[in-house]
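hi support,

uploading two proteins for the ticket. first:
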Amino acid sequence: MAGPEENPQASAIALDSYDTALCIIPPREAWPTVDRLRELYDKAYEKWPPHVNLVYPFIRPELLRQAAASIESVVSRTGPEETGKFRVSLDSADVFSHKHSNTIYVHDSNRERCSRLSSLRTEILEDLGHKEGDYQMHMTIGQSEDASSSSHKFLLNKVSLLPPIEWDVDRLYILVRERLQVDSTMTSEMKIWGTVDLATAQLSALDIPSSLYERRKTAVADSDTGEKDQLQTRPTYYYEAETEMWLPYAPEPSETADLPKTLVVSSYNVLAEFEWPPSRSRYPLLLKNILSRRAAADILVLQEVTDDFLSHLLRDEQIHEAYDFVSHGPPDQSDVEPLPSLLNIVVLSRFPFEWEWVPFSRKHKGSVVAKFSEIGKWEDGQFFPLVVAGVHLSHGLTDGAVTAKKGEIQRILNYLSAQYPRNPWILAGDTNISTSSYSIDTALNKKAISSQTANYLSTIDNFFAERKLVDAWAFARFDLGEPSDGEYDEMFRKEVFEGEQGATYDPSSNEVAAEVVGSGFNMRPQRYDRIMVKGEGVLAITRFNMLGFLKETVEGGLGPTYASDHWGVRCTMRVGEEKGVKPSLGEISSLVVPVHLKKATGGFENANELRDVLSRLHVFPSQEDVKTRQEAFALLQSLVEDAVRNPLEGSGQQRRPALVVVPVGSYGLGVWTPSSDVDCLCIGPFGTHTFFAVVTQRLRRAEGDGVRIMRRVKANTGTMLELEVRGVKMDLQYCPATSIAEHWPEVLRTRPADPIWTLSTQTLLKLKAIRDLDYLRRSVPDLVKFRLAHRTIKTWAKSRGLYSARFGYLGGIHISILLARVCKLLARDGRSDPASVPDILATFFHHYASFDWKNEAAFDPFFHKTRLQYTRTTREPLAILGYFPPSLNTSHAASLPSVRTIAEEFKQADALLSSPGAAWSALLGGSGAVDFLSAYKSYIKIDAQFWGLSSMKGAGFIGWLESRCVLLLVDVNRRTPGIHARIWPARFVAAEEDGEEPDTSRDYQGHYLVGLDKLDPTMGRDELKLAFGSLQTVLRRFEELIRGDEKYFDAKNCWMSASVVSQAELGELQVDRREWGGYTPGEDESDEEEEEDAVADDDGAERQDYVPLSKKDRKHGAADIVVPRLEPGKKFRTAADVMNRLRWDPELDSSDYIVGYLDRFVGPMERALDTWKLEQTDEEFIPQHRILSFKQRSTGKIVWERRTRKDEIFGSGVE
């Protein structure tokens, strides 16, 4: 824009000073509208007020008096009617393009109004001896660099959305520059030197130039103390249906309303459009996700909101219905300002609120802090409203970005602590905190970040924990056992690193994120988005879920896509003051053995060295292993589905039956090793016999696809097929449960007391594996750390001869339960720094080394919160309690000798972990069986032989013998209490020469060895001699037991013996490497298991009118019992149903009930319900079909009876 030219006819005063200016300035009440943008985009903000220059540059400061006189003269000559008040309305936006930058401004588009100002300017210039040049009245809003860039166009559009800035110009301002120093930096400020009144033509000159801003902003770049930004803080808007407009909300003093019972808060980064013009193709899908059931909330915090999207959002009628209040009004509404930045935080709510802006050190970064007058807590007669802070922290994994994040976190937390120390808080939004250990380690190795930055990222949660902020995701996992909706089963099996669990930003799964991030170490999943709660006794987290999973093909897209690169998060809370003990531990807090962190030291501190040792031991599966098992599972799943679908297609059935095939065990938990089998459970509506008949037929036809049926066995939980699928050993079990299959997987989230779980004991036993597995996966704080620790413990247990549940030692489920409770209790301990894997392992061994196994039970207090539905008996030396019924104690095979061995091994491991100079290889790389063979002077040698038998029958004999070994240990301990007996959980065979393959013929000879040691070193010769005699008696009894079983032992082709031998008599032995498959025999296959299956298979069919007794029952004079007929359609509840109800219903006291049952040899008997055994391998196990009645002890009243079909528990019997 050209400046004025000199007028040769007048004595010209030079207009060459940039230290003065003649301008007009709007009234102060109009300043915030433009200053909210100028603060962010105008480099002259606070140096200049909002203004429209008439003449700039102006005259030198020393000549201002002379120039002022000229201006007075012009105004006086022109007259009030010409120069009096005139209207200015800055209603349009435009841009000046310079060589290296651009100036974006607003101006008055009305030519008539502009001419008044232009005429006055012309008169003044002429009086100063200058001619009028080109002039465009304007008020600068900001600057940009490249006029062709999207950022420039977004800013120009934002300025055009400003409401018109209107005022009556009644004076001219003369400004003068004053130079000053702020925080060691030289700057300047234009101050008022004087004004000229247009009505009176009078100059009002100031003795000291006056600052236009009441106070300058203090520099806060290096400060961690947050401050409220009065300028950027705006009123909340509410929707008025009558005018169909969003209007400013003015809170009025009123009585505090009743608190809502629940509060739901959601947070969602909607991903801004960065190219101009902004595409609106994702907007409809974003709205669908925001309005979806998963996202429905009372308070919604959005990040990366642009002017265009907010205008679209607030036009939607469903948004009007869902949210009454919003922090920022729609920018396209004529009286509403645009959003301050390109990326903004916006809060929507059902409840009224006020909010304030807390800026961070980086421009455009800050927090919207909202106060809700209708939600909060009362304390000492004062109400403290809920405060919700919405954040969107700086992005990036560099030293500078992480330092910025650190400062931003400290600033908002310090602000909340200073301003609202007693209020409940919620911090919600996109933290941009990198959580993936892979990303952090890679950035460190590439020197993208320093070790100091990496260390800070690993302890960043300290800031939140110190302010008592609870991460809703973490709390929901280990305290509530609730995963987010986005954590699918495949997430549990694919390779993830520490910190990637619960990811809300996952380029590997979200194609929008993949497109944004490109490639590199940032492609890993990150848990960026969080909701953190400081409940102050009034907010209690009850649920957490993720949102944003709806996909559609957007306009111009090639296929279905997510709406954003982030998934949102939602937290549900109970509102109301809670008193008393923490609900997470409830009444059983006194039963919980506390866990105290023990830091790993010396050579055990390095997790990478641990991984290296495990890798050398081939503990981790290779990519090929992973792929092979995935393909094998997929093939088995398709074959099973095909098997049950084809017969139904010919039957005319229209609806496809509900059928579920899921992995369980180590594969399902993600802790499997290359040598692990894959355990599979199928749940469906068919009878057990029907299922295995059609599936077996289909599997046999798939032999060409690499499928082989190894054998069919009866396990504790029913029939099981041992398979080999493309070289992978797999076990397939089936559970007939129609209602479970039809409601899968949502049924896993229902309460244990839900009626849907009112199933037979056998059915519940089959479902226990997947229910326990599901709870573990969704409740462990960090599943990646858990998996590494689990594999380590399992490797240690195997090397020490402790990994075998059938021998009374530890199995996978025991390690899982013991480890999970340590991880959870450590996480709940409130430590600011999360425990590393070495720390978890050191704590694990130290905790259980001092655990009182005799008197204490190991259980998960986050699952068993209020009442432990378990009574320990004297016959249970080890109590490791699982999660779901029917069997809580998972250690039913444990014996006193095996528990003694476990305890001793824990102590040795703890001592080793504390030894200076020791390393992971010493803990995990032991020679195990070799050490065992030389550890004892005497052994019990159980010799097992067979000849002329197939491998299947031979395995049956060996497996059955193996299952009886626990009884031998029990008897040895009972008869010779001064002797400790330790069995090695594997068979030994004669050592083979190098390179010799194991014998796979039909003849076999192997040995089980039990090491013998004195419990009391002072035992004398006579005591030992007496013990030896007792031991010989025990061995003879054991031989008689084995040889007397006609079903498994046939002297024609098998033999066993048990004897005491010295170490020297053992000879050269090695562990049997023969692959037999794990055989776990169940009860008699002829009737009992079949009857249990029949009960489980009955899905509403009408029962018979008589109960046929077995031949064994008739020995006691019993006959078939005629019973009353039930009403048509009525189903008499089984004994298993009644037992489950009595055991698990909190309204009923199980200790007040007695079970009447039919003993095979004695006849009718009674036993207390709490002592009833459910494990089929237990000596005292009694099948459910032998239960006759249930009686209430306190009243003597029979509440359920099979013979008469009486049922006062469910009311299902004959009335």
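and the second one:
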Amino acid sequence: ARPPAGGAAGRELELLKRLGPLLGRAAASAAVADVLIPVLAVRRLDESAAAEVLAAFAAVAPAPRLLVDGVDGVDVDEQDADSMRSSAASHAAALAPLFGRLRTRHARRALCAAFEAVGAWDVGARVASALLNRLHAESRLSIDGVDYDTRLDAYDALDVSWFHDAPASSAAPIAHHVLHELRGKDMALRHAAAAALERMLDAAVGGAKTLSRDASSDAGGLEDVDDDDDETDARKTSAGGDASTPEDAERKQKNVVIATLGDVVMRVVAPGVRGLLRAPDQTTRAEAIGAFRKLAEAAPSAAPGAFASLADPSDPEKDFFANAAHLQAHRRAKALRLLSAVAVKTADLNEELMETSPDESVEKKAKIFLPASVIVGYLAPLATAALGDPGADVASTAASAVGALAGALPWGPYRDLLHATLRKASAGRGGRDGRGYDVEGSKALHIRAAATILERFHEFDLDAETREERETGAPAVATNVVGRLIHPSVVECLRLDVLPKLEALAVVEDNEGKGGTVRPAAAAATVAVLRLLPARDLEYDISRVLGKMANCLRSRAQGVRDSARAALASASAGLGAAHLPSVVSLLTTRLDRGFMVHVLGATLHSILDATIKTEHAEDVNPETDPEDVDDALEEIIPVLDADVFGRAAQEREEVAAIRGAYKEARRSRAHECLTLLAASASMPDALPKLLAPVTKRLHAASLPSLRVKIEAYAQAVAKGVLRNPRLSPEATLVLVYSVINDGVTRDERVAATESSMKLEETKLGEAKRGQKETGNRVWENGWFLIKLPAPGSDRFVLEDAGPAAGDRYKKAKYGDDETSDAGDGGPAATGIAALAGSAEDVPPNFEILVVFALGLLRAMLRKMSGEKGVGGKAGDEQDDAAEEADAAGDASPRGLSKQRRLILEGVVPLMARCLSSPHAAVPPLATRCLAQLSTMRLGAFDASTGALARRIMALLRECPRPGDPLAQDCMKLLNNLLKRHGNFTPTEAQFRFLVTFCFGDLEADQGEAHRSTTFALMRAVLARRPLLPEVYDVMKTVSSLVVRAGAAETRALCSQALVQFLLDYPLGERRLRQHIDLIAANLEYVYASGRQSALRCVRDLSVRFPKDVVATHAPFLFVPLVARLGADEDAACRKGAGEALHALLRRVSSERSEKDGEFGDASNDGVVKKLLSLCVGWLNVAADSDGNDATSDPRLARAAMQTL
């Protein structure tokens, strides 16, 4: 009830004011005062009405000396005095909470007057009244009417000694007033009140008062600091409290009496601090946090474990209280992160406590960091209030902290915290009576806090899991997404109480009929609940809850669609890949026309990306079950088919207005979806479903536009297959072999038919006399016609070339249960060749799938070549070890396994057949596959050398120049075959063609890859030593390019090839001397880079040539080297000359034999003496000459000295 200031109630109060002094007996006055006290207890009483009631109370309060018949001085007897003191104590206890609740000055002045009247009979009230009047002192000289000097002096008087000396009941109204002042805006008074509160707590500890933990739960009527009264009442009701029973009323009446200062701390200060921590104002919360720290330190029973777990007096940076009250936002966010860490540790310890035995639980129970009472009373309200903090990253951190704290609570407080958060998120901004629940932060942040609470759900039925595990002997399996058993009552609460509230919050309805706007945080919370529901309820709830979100995708507003798409992606990720069919089916039924078709494709990509892909990588989520993805393909592939080949693709290409109006129509994400699906599905078993849109369109792939789309589709699938971590290499190789074999066999049969059944081309009238005119081009009635074979006469012309052909091939190759007979009664094919089907079942344009299979094969071979012991050069020991491991039936630690090797042995001749394919894209891929296979030491190359060489040469002849990509691939393949397979021996004509075609234009500009490939093949050819004139001619060009080539890499490669040629090839003395003469002449090349290359070539020759050859040509090379050493202007050339001289002299000098200690042969001694005589002669000439002779150049003498 709200008694108004005027009207009948106002007249009655005014009458009580006038009759109060006229009451003759104290008992009568006390009885009237007792009637007014319940009116003041109404929590929503208007403050003006409260002021009137307090004035009436002050008027009727009994005085020490009463008026009897108008005569003053009549004393009250002792019995009435005791009754009056008892009533006054009760009245003081009832009025004390009003000092923390009333806000206006008028009401507080009336409260001070009423309390002063009570002080006439109560000592504690009298002591407190004197100080409270000073704490409310006013001054007309002040701008705002506050007498700061008097009030601050009064706060200074509230020292430790005052709280020790004053009665305990005097501290209660003072504590309420101090808590009220902490909510004020005046900084000076707020700081003074905080200091007074600290001194009160010091006095409570110093006086060794007993602080009972039980008292903290009995503060119900005294806790008057929470602005959110509905929440407090709801929390008490949910906790089971009911103050309406007579027993509770009697208990509260007993607890109202304040006996000690400890009672004030537990019944007034602690509840007041809990209320202040909920304050939306940051300054008020900062003061409350300081009071909380002092309370936790001085009275540990009020907040058990809070100070020990959260405070760090030695380091303020790690102190939760110091950071939480800090002015800087990042420090407040740091405090919330510290709180989250402690809460997580507490939750972990609680979980361990539930799993341990009773004996161990007693010991671990003492280690609990934060009890549930501290979290519910202090920390959770503080974290919830921080949701409204405007500081950067504070509110989001607070939402996470609320969830972490909820994870450390048992089910009852957990449920109450969740309901309280949802109530605040559900209420409007105004709320009831203008006091809505939105005062502690925005609605979105409260929803996010509810989501984090649900993410920390931990109320699993451990007893049921243990019982089922004992009965079945296997871990308990639940039908929900999380896979844990939950008690039915908890499930009922989540489904009937929590889920409807979140469902209402998830979508903000609009008036357009498009579903409204989705709140992502509410959607995440909804999904967290759906994950906990059993499967029997989940399917229905998914269609209902997610259906509302899917309706928002029908909106034309881009922001609405983006939020709905993000919410659905998050929901799908939470539910997992097992529920992808339900989600995709839900989308296809709602997005079925117009621009929504483009929205469907973009939404499908977001869902797959969130469900399958990992968070911070390109790889797929390893927890995704491939079977779940396989089941979803039936719903997803039709959507992708329509997006790539259907009306959506046509509109995207032709209608510019759609691309401009809708972001989803600007690009197709279908290829990315295909890559994700192929990377996570069962491979290669899922390829038939993935490639179904391709196989059914092969008959029409002759159209260029459709062919481009089909090739892009297949390329996206191949990209995903290669990323699949569960790909079976052996099964994929078998499938690839089968596809390629079908395509190659069909091409070979078509080519054979065309060559054997080719009709002669003649004209009418040109045949000889007596010869029947035949042909398919004839003149008839003046028109040049083309005659086609009659229907049915050519078995290679497919009458039913269409979708049926593609479907027939798909069934034949990818999992049709029916098996065909061997046919003709012949023996069934064995080995990998048995996988090849009839070429007549291959649809037209099948080369698209052949290219797809070749691309997969090449990528897999590249991966295998990188494995240890597979690619590159390996010794016989590795081969022997691999063979022994294969014989034992185990996988080889180095090299290919036996099964994989058998498959690849069959792939080699198939690739050789692919080189003759008439389709331009097939031979290059086959060449690259053969290049990879040639590094794996397969015996199949030795059995097909002749045919393979002929086909490679045929491909090279079709290339216009050596730099063509196909020519480069052929050259790489030839390089590998010549180096690694000794049985591969091209004919002389083939070698001649290779040398002429590949090395005929070495002086042209070449790229790095082209250059390295060319010279690698050159060295491989030189290693085979074909005695051809063309080789000698090419080496003359190489010898000149040692110094003339523009690129340093080319000069180095030419030098290496020249040295190998001079070492390996049979050269006569004359031809060898010609090459050495040319090298020596190049030492005088005009450019320093060329001279350096020639010097390196001389050094290599000196090191690698036999000693007798070096000794023969040493005098001839010695002179130009010494000249370069002394006369060259380039420092690098002089250094190169010195290195070449050092290598030359080391080879020709006499060395002591390691066996018998004798010197070397006499020929070397003669060469050394000759070289020494040259050096000495140059020195003598330089000393005796007059300087006009060329040999008297001092640089030559200096070079001779360096040589000696």
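thanks. also noticed: The radius of gyration is 49 Å.
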